[in-house]
């Protein structure tokens, strides 16, 4: 990936939250699906105070968090509900 492009996504916002920051640094309650398996292979979500949504890998809770806008999460959820990503697990 072009380093200059990556830097655009790593700019710290006014809230101090940015893509790639350590998930453990976010003072939030993480939530995973009740469909997650017992081995901890889960994606966890947390709503941030500014309305964004953070995502982390439950196997690496201190690893990086990805931060998305509400509109981005809404588009993803609508796509999941419509079956647009079913081919990824089939």
UniProtKB/TrEMBL annotation:
Residues 29-81 form the DUF397 domain. It holds the Pfam family DUF397. InterPro entries: DUF397. This is DUF397 domain-containing protein. It comes from Streptomyces doudnae.
């Amino acid at each position: 990936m072009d380093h200059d492009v990556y830097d655009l996504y790593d700019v710290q916002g006014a809230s101090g939250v940015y893509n790639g920051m350590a998930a453990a640094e976010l003072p939030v309650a993480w939530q995973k699906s009740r469909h997650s398996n017992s081995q901890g292979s889960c994606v966890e979500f947390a709503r941030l105070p500014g309305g964004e949504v953070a995502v982390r890998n439950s196997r690496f809770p201190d690893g990086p968090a990805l931060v998305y806008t509400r509109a981005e999460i809404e588009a993803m959820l609508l796509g999941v509900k419509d079956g647009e990503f079913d081919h990824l697990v089939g």
